[in-house]
Amino acid sequence: MARHTDKSTSRFREPPDPRFWRLNRSIEFDRHLAPYDVAQSRAHARALNRIGVIGDDEIAVIDDGLATVAAELEAGEFGFEPGDEDIHMAVERRLGGLIGELAGKLHTGRSRNDQVATDICMAVMDASESAGERIAGVMEELLRLAKEHRDWTMPGYTHLQRAQPVYLGHHILSWFWMLSRDFDRFAAARKAASVMPLGAGALAGVNWEIDRRAVASELGFESVTVNSLDSTSNRDMVLDYLSAGSICLTHLSRVGSELVIWSSTEFGFCQLSEPFTSGSSIMPQKQNPDSAELLRAKAPRVIGDFTTLLGVLHALPLTYGKDMQEDKEPFFDAVETVEASLEMTAGIFEGIEFDRDRLADAASDEMLAATEIADLLVRRGVPFREAHGIVGDLVRQCVEEGRDLSDLRPDELSARSSELDDEYYEVLKQGSWLESKRSEGGTSSASLDAQIKLAGERLQQISST
Ligand code: ARG
Q1: pLDDT over 50 (residue 315)
Q2: What is the domain extent for residue 162?
């Protein structure tokens, strides 16, 4: 195995051992950084030109050469060589092949340590932005569905036991707000990545008065780092992305789980569209919710990526260590998984169908009114804990005798509490249970309408960022 340039490796007499090279070589995965690496090199070359390190006649040659490298990489025509250790070395080697000795000037005032940190920041900025766009896409679908199903009733659950009735639109918006927070987390990851490390050199800074701010704004950074040691050892922005991704996919796993349950024959609350389901190889009647199941299962993978990088960075002395090359595979894996999962989620919601009757049927379970009866007693001055006990007794009696709450006779009610009169039967009439939830953020139509308005405003705010 030859070291790729004799000049920069002249300290060595022997080539790297293949058993080392196999693990050391990162080109198979860090080639994803290629567009950032070339853009960064072009900006760096211009900065070197402005301070006279690269002459006016030379800059055009370097820039053209880098443009050719970029085009080859984009077209998939770039010839990687076995001696290419990583993307930075590969780009430099190819540039040398295209423009000769002059290519060697490009690495003035730069180390692979600040170079790779800068590439990864650029990649995190892009990935965070595209996660945000995809999240917004899902949120739009959810808002549309919430509006369409604003007055469909369903049981709300705790412990996966029927608890209190809610409107389906209200439940759908609970997913919307989870994702809205994810949007903020990816925006924070983007911000963390928007501080440019380039100019830190290997670790101590560089000997050239490069205008770092000019390079930063050319590359879309908001600012530059203030400490060169921190610049080369910092991978927080990757952790931030992975953390946001872990939480986002955990959210999607909860959505996926609900869709699996809801689309079962037992629940029958919804049906996923055919393009998002699979058949069985043996049972012709099956339409399995594989997409929702995959959504349920993807989170641990991204969490694994997150803990992998935390593990790599844990107790690692500053500044750069080759350990840090291990940031890339978890990051790229997470980006792929986050983007694919969000895109699939949007697709699932585009075609999902809900079953109004099944939902309403489940919501008309009178037991769901137990809290309402307790509240009726509270309005009559009975302390809540006591009311809870009285209604608990009624429920137990009904369960034991196989009766509904409305089957209980007035004399049975008054035997339990003198406060239980005809209004008891009024309360049990379906509908009022939902409309009584008038608190801000509750499920009543008035509260839900206000919430739908807020959701629309949130989406507008997101699209204007
Ligand atoms: N491929 C390396 C990485 O991703 C680039 C930085 C190498 N720096 C060094 N001092 N060997 O971390």
Answers
A1: yes
A2: 113-362
Residues near ligand 1 (Cβ within 6 A): 26, 30, 86, 112-113, 116, 320, 322, 324-325
Q: Which pLDDT belongs to residue 433?
A: 83
Query: To which H or E segment does residue 162 belong?
Result: strand 161-167
What residues are annotated to the active site? 159, 280
Q: How far apart are CA 150 and CA 172, in angstroms?
A: 9
Locate the ligand 1 atom nearest the alpha carbon of residue 324 and give its number: 12
The proportion of the chain whose per-residue pLDDT surpasses 90, expressed as a percent, equals: 90
Q: Quote the crossing angle between the two packed helices 56-74 and 87-99, to the nearest 10°.
A: 120
Q: How many domains in the chain?
A: 3
**CA torsion angle for 340, 345, 347, 351 (degrees, to 10)?**
160
Which of 80, 108, 136 is the endpoint of a domain? 108
Which phi and psi angles does 294 have, rounded to 5°?
-65, -40
pLDDT in tens, 333-389: 999 999 999 999 999 999 999 999 999 999 988 888 888 899 999 999 999 999 999
Distance 86 CA to ligand 1 centre (A): 8
8 vs 83, higher pLDDT: 83
User: Are 214 and 252 in a shared domain?
Assistant: yes
Give the distance (Å) from ligand 1 centre to CA of residue 325.
6
Ligand 1 centre distance from Cα of residue 456 (Å):
45
Q: Which atom of ligand 1 is nearest to the CA of 87?
A: 1
CATH of the domain at 32: 1.10.275.10
